[in-house]
Predict the structure.
Amino acid sequence: MKRMMAIVEREMRKFFRSPALMMVSLTMPWSNSLFWATPSAARFAAREMGVVDYDRGAQALKIEEAFNSIAVNIRTFTTVAYEDEQKAREDVRTGKIDAAVIIPAQYSRRVLAGDSPAIGLVVDTATKR
């Protein structure tokens, strides 16, 4: 324990003797977060995702509420409600929206029954903005 404390004490003395080392140690995390966070936030801003809800049950409502909370808090995408899966697929293909989530009929019933139902996701990887 004494050896470890001696090493820590030696390193801390080096650190406090060098103002340049202190400045770099304190500013690098900030500059990195500003450099990397700003472009990624701009890249994901203003994305639109369609939601086709054939179930209209409680579990499907939870999914839609989760998407809406992401849209309000993180602001990486907004949701657009669709009544027809074909219209949502067409809008993804033409680039009007970036993705579409399809919640199948009887989804809530199957979740409550423990069947692990699947949700559809439609993404066009060829579309670039």
Notes: The helical segments are 2-17, 19-44, 58-73, 85-94, 107-113. The chain has a mean pLDDT of 82. The chain has two domains: 2-40, 46-123.
